[in-house]
Amino acid sequence: MSLERDMTMAEVVSQRPELARPMTSLGLDFCCGGGASLSDGCSAAGLDVDEVLAGFEAVSTQAEPDWANMAPTELVDHLESTHHQYLGEALPYLDGLVEKVTGVHGERHPELLQIADIFYRLRADLEPHLMKEERVLFPMIRELYDSTEVPMFHCGTLQNPIRMMCLEHDTVGDLLGQLSILTSSYTPPDDACGSYIALYAGLAELEADTHLHVHKENNLLFPVVIAEEATRLGR
User: What are the φ/ψ torsions at residue 219 (nearest 5 degrees)?
Assistant: First the structure.
């Protein structure tokens, strides 16, 4: 359904859970203040409701770039500017929601304690992983394609850090699978508040984005890079 200015903010996030993060960043309280209309919420936050609605529509209609046909260095830039940037924003946001929802609902829903534990492990794995890609692997890939010779890497061949990244991808995939099971495929319970709904929607988005992220690396970027290095080495 289309969004209207007279919908309550709780209705907005219930109909479009993916808007929870944008609403939070705009200062629109869909939880405790969820009974207020979107129009009133925007007025209180000093926002133009029509501009906010247009922005919300753009969340789902924004065109996806043709990443399947990108050159390796272009794909590396795309990974950093989309998936790495997304995780840099989503992980702290979800961390706050996990703490809030577990604190309020943990007694009635003990599975939230397990969800919190797995999420914290997931964040502890993902953030160093992103740093290793941005500071080590991706610069090496750019160097390979920027050089006419075969660069001499401290790790020997690019297959070594790529193999490690793939192993870490497997670990992250296992943790996401556990989250999906514990949340019944991210289905909030009947007594879920706005923050509870937002948490499950955010975790579902995290899983979908990470699966796509890993696909682009494991199945597109890494095989091409390994083949390019092998060709230059005459293997």
Answer: -105, -20
Distances (CA, A) of 172 to 96, 142, 197: 20, 25, 23
Q: Domain for residue 125, yes or no?
A: yes
Residue 2 is assigned to a structural domain of this protein: no
> CA angle 164-170-175, nearest 5°?
130
- Domain identity same for 81 and 191: yes
The secondary structure element, H or E, covering residue 84 is none
- 49 and 154, same domain (yes or no): no
Structural domains of the chain, count: 2
Separation of alpha carbons 168 and 125, rounded Å: 8
- Measured in degrees and rounded to the nearest 5, phi and psi for residue 226 equal -60, -45
**Domain containing residue 183:** 67-232
Predicted confidence (pLDDT) per residue in 81-110, tens digit:
999 999 999 999 999 999 999 999 999 999
User: Is 4 part of a structural domain of the chain?
Assistant: no
pLDDT of 129-168, one tens digit each? 999 999 999 999 999 999 887 777 787 889 999 999 999 9
